[in-house]
Specification:
The chain is an alpha+beta fold. The protein folds into two domains: 138 residues, no CATH class; 163 residues. Helix content is 53%, strand content 9%. It is built from eleven helices and six strands. The strands form two sheets. It has a four-stranded antiparallel β-sheet with strand order 1-2-3-4. Strand 1 and strand 2 form a beta hairpin.
Length: 328
């Protein structure tokens, strides 16, 4: 690929990232797909933070940054680094010589040559991407400003732990307790309910341990709260210390249950041992679950306050945190 075309594409993609970050900071929720953007209720035009105008159209948007106007489309899965010849040419309309081109026709020739030799890949939505590069998604945009110690919501490992593991545990517990209440009320369950009740119960314990593993070992939560988050997050340290002590009380028996749940087992001895009346570990698991839920809720409150105080409007969600979609 010719250097001037590569420079043009790189600058275009950088301007798009700046635009999307500004849109997110200004309160726009980022789409998981071009269709989601198309169907969103975002006004067709408006003003972003800093007085920057935008114009929503179809699967994309035009943003009139102080550094220049950029027009882009979201890709099929919400990619933001796609482009086409028309958009690149429009992008250079007032600064063509800066990229080493004398005319739009030269851009077209260089673009077609890059497509022909495989340096540019075409998607099914008429957008092109640099071959061999990882595509950037709108939901992964980092809208934080320099010096901000709280990572963007979708890059915050605490939020990821909550959304991918604890919420799974919470759902399994809720389903288990619903059937358990049915059993206590009726005195018995149907065969199908018995099977589901067992699945809900063991899966709850499995995801509960996965949450504890992330909390205790994968993230080093104490260091994260003291060194990698804003000062106010240290207020969570006493709660963390109490929670860690609770986790350690029956760490190994819960780990063995998790292994029996998510790996093929020869027998169910470990699960029966965990449920022995003498150890009373079921009460402990319920207490642990509730303590984790309170910690995540308090962490999210601290995040929401920080988002509001630092103009990160797109990340403010009083209800529940944005969930990342699992992708292959």
């Amino acid at each position: 690929m010719e250097k001037n075309l590569e420079q043009l594409i790189t600058e275009f993609q950088s301007r798009v990232r700046d635009s999307v970050a500004l849109m997110y900071r200004s309160g726009m929720k980022m789409p998981y797909s071009s269709f989601a953007w198309l169907k969103s209720d975002i006004p067709g035009s408006g003003v972003l933070d800093g007085g920057i105008k935008y114009f929503k159209h179809g699967a994309g948007c035009e943003v009139r940054l102080e550094t220049g106007t950029v027009d882009f489309d979201f890709g099929e899965h919400g990619e933001i680094d796609g482009f086409d010849l028309w958009r690149l040419t429009k992008f250079t309309r007032v600064s063509l010589p800066c990229f080493g081109f004398d005319s739009p026709e030269q851009i077209e020739q260089s673009f077609n040559a890059a497509v022909a030799c495989g340096d540019l890949e075409r998607s099914g939505y008429d957008l092109y991407y640099l071959a061999g590069t990882t595509r950037m998604l709108a939901i992964d945009i980092d809208s934080t400003q320099p010096g901000d110690k709280l990572p963007s919501q979708n890059h915050d490992m605490v939020m990821t732990l909550y959304a991918h593991y604890f919420e799974a545990a919470d759902l399994m517990r809720a389903n288990f307790e619903k059937l358990d209440s049915k059993l206590k009320k009726r005195g018995k369950l149907s065969r199908n309910d018995e099977v589901q009740n067992r699945i809900y119960f063991t899966t709850w314990l499995g995801f509960l341990w996965a949450t504890c593993e992330g909390f205790k070992k994968k993230m080093n939560m104490r260091r994260l709260l003291t060194e990698e988050r804003p000062e106010r997050f240290k207020e969570l340290l006493p709660e963390f210390d109490a929670l860690l002590k609770l986790i350690n009380a029956h760490w190994d028996p819960l780990r063995e249950v998790r292994n029996n749940v998510f790996h093929l087992r020869d027998n169910s001895e470990k699960i029966r041992k965990f449920l022995s009346r003498e150890a009373d570990r079921l009460s402990w698991a319920l207490e642990l679950h509730d303590a984790l839920k309170r910690f995540f809720a308090n962490y999210q409150v601290h995040c929401t306050v920080h988002y509001a105080m630092n103009g990160r409007k797109g990340e403010i969600d009083i209800g529940r945190p944005t969930r990342r979609i699992f992708r292959a």
